[in-house]
Each structure stands twice: as structure tokens, then as C-alpha cells.
Amino acid sequence: MRILHTSDWHLGRAFHRVNMLSAQSEFIGHLVATVREHAVDAVVVAGDVYDRAVPPLAAVELFDDALHRLADLGVPTVMISGNHDSARRLGVGAGLIDRAGIHLRTEPSACGTPVVLADAYGDVAFYGLPYLEPALVKDEFAVERAGHETVLAAAMDRVRADLAARPAGTRSVVLAHAFVTGGEPSDSERDITIGGVAAVPAGVFDGVDYVALGHLHGCQTITGRVRYSGSPLAYSFSEAEHRKSMWLVDLAGDGTVTAERLDCPVPRPLARLRGTLDDLLADPALAPHEDAWVEATLTDPVRPADPMARLTDRFPHTLSLVFDPDRAPDDPDVSYARRLAGRTDRQIAEDFVAHVRGAGPDEHELAVLGEAFDAVRADGTVREVAR
């Protein structure tokens, strides 16, 4: 069976101030053309179809168009909800849409109920594991402690139990939206840390033939059977070096997996430039980036006059301007932002406690801080679902 694996469309998301709807529409057209060209048997979309729980109308219209075009192909499509989606909104009408060959899997309780497709070698069971927010699904899976690994492990136990009851030789594909150990994140993904731990080991998914992952925006291979497709478009400058693509996966009759990367259309290349303003404006080596979306980091010791206007004279698509003067590490003027770079909200809070008290939080206080941040994030998820 030939499977096209994609994820993280983030319909409705902008790139800085640039509306990406036309690029997203172009990707949907590319997806449909790829299904035809490569004689795909099934499409899987591993979450974050939308960028937020209540997407703009234009994004909903594009999704509706995508559903109709995929249904018209007569090729089954399996989709799950991600942490950016409202599972309840995305899943509206799922029972009716099933009849058109579009299978929306947004309910945690249905993790062990697959979409079963067949080819010349027998059945292939597709199990959809939507994003599982631990605080919200721990009762569903009867786990004592809310954590990503525990709820995913419980969901996979249901998958393996169902698979064991099926005829021998039934092949299996799992769609999941999670941060798996070994994956490389970017600045574009929303933090899903719970209890200070976000990543789950790839071994959680043992026992199935292929795992189609979503959440991380870079296309990457965790193991030969566990892969991220990544997002089809770049949504932050941290993705400047990404090659945006989808996986074309061939699942043989014996469960053997082979995969090929298929490139996605690039609306405009990205460039991250660093140097003094005068150097950026004069350096001939930067000529290839003059048509790119640009993030410029200026290292001038004193902020120059009208930097954005001067930059856009040469780089008309400059979207981000960052000031990072070259100074000694002990310079008192080193920016607060630089001192916080790469630190999580929880780490910043722990540093604040140490700063005002003269000593960092003890073990009990660390636990209280962790619970507070988890509760705030879970409350935000509940509010999005409720809306």
C-alpha cells in the first residue's frame, strides 16, 4: 500500500506579517497532484490541520476545499487533530464525512478503533491518536499520573490489543501528534511540556509497521518506521534550513517499509543574515538573498538610523529586524532578551526565585512551580476546547 504522509498544515497561520493563505492553497493543489501522479492509496494527516482552535473563515473555506478535492480523488484520507486544533470543532460531522472516504479521528476514546483499508495483500489498520493532553485524558486511559508518555503508552496498549485480535498478517499504521525523543524542534511549535517533560521514547510505538508523526516542523526520521513529515511550509525563521516535504511510504505485504521524500512548493526562500548594517548593505555575497524573506540581525554597537528602511532598499522582503550588538559577555548593557534566550518559562521563574531570595527553589517549591505552569497550560487548552 502506498501512503502519503503529511502534517502540520496550520491553515490560517501567517509568516510574520505575510498572509500565507495563497501558499497554503498552492500546497493543497500540490498534495492533490501528488496523489494522482504517484498513484497514492491513502493519505494521512498527522494533526495541526488548523493553526488555532477557532480558525479564520478563510482557513475553514480552504479546509473545506481540501476535503472536497481529496474526496473527489476517491483515495481514503485519515486525519487526526493536533495540539493547535480544537478536536471537537475539527471532528464535527466526522460520521458523515467518513462516507466520503475522509476519516477524522479526534476522539481519544477511539484510539483503538482503526480505519481498515485493504490492498492485494490484505488489511491495513490505520489507528488515529489525536493530540492527547495528559491532564484532560488521564481519566479516559485510567492512568494515575498525567504525563505524555503514560497516556500515549495507554493509547498504544489499546492499539496493540485491537491489532492482536485481527487476522494474522494485518499490517498497521499509527498517526500520532507528539514530541518523540530524538526529534529536532524549531521555534514554530507550541510548547507541550508537562511536568517538565515533553518528549516520549520511540519505543512507545513498538509493535506497529509505520508511525506517521506530526508536531515537529522539520521532516525527520526517528527510526525506519517512525517519521515526522514536518510542516509543508516554513512558519518561522528557525526553519530556514528545512527542506519542506512529505513522505511517500510504501508498505509491503510483509510489513516492510520504504520511504521517499517529495518536496513541497516554496513560496519564497528564507534567509537569516547577521552583521553590521553597512556590511549587510554592501556585501556582494548576499545578492542571492535579495528576493528572500529576510531576518536581519544587526551587530552594530550603536543602533543605526532608519535600519529597516535602509535594509528594505536592498532586501525588499525583510520581515524581521533583531538588534544584537557585539559586546563583551560581562557588559552590563547585554540585553535581557539575550540572557533569557533558550530558557523555558519555568526556568525563568526558577531564576527569578533565586534572584529575589538569594537561593533557588527547593524540591517542594520546584514541584509547586511545575504544577502551576502545567495547570495554566491545561486551563488554556480547556478554554480552547470549550470555545
Describe the protein's topology.
Layout lengths: L1 E5 L7 E2 L2 E2 L1 H17 L4 E5 L10 H17 L3 E4 L6 H4 L3 H5 L3 E4 L9 E5 L2 E8 L4 H4 L10 H17 L6 E7 L32 E5 L5 E4 L2 E3 L16 E7 L5 E7 L6 E6 L1 H6 L10 E6 L8 H8 L3 E6 L12 H5 L4 H13 L5 H24 L1
Parallel strand pairs: 1-4, 4-5, 5-6, 8-9, 9-10, 10-12, 15-16, 16-17
Antiparallel strand pairs: 1-13, 2-3, 7-8, 11-12, 13-14
Helix pairs in contact: 1-2, 10-11
Overall 3D form:
globular
What's the helix count?
11
Oligomer: single chain
Order of helices and strands: EEEHEHEHHEEEHHEEEEEEEHEHEHHH
Number of domains: 2
Give the C-alpha Rg: 23 Å
What is the correct CATH architecture of the largest domain? 4-Layer Sandwich
**Looking at this structure, what is the CATH superfamily of the largest domain?**
Metallo-dependent phosphatases
The major beta sheet can be summarized as:
6 strands, mixed
Structural class based on helices, strands and sheet pairing: alpha/beta
**What's the mean pLDDT score?**
90
- Strand order within the widest sheet? 6-5-4-1-13-14
Percent of residues in helices comes to 25-40%
What is the total tally of β strands? 17
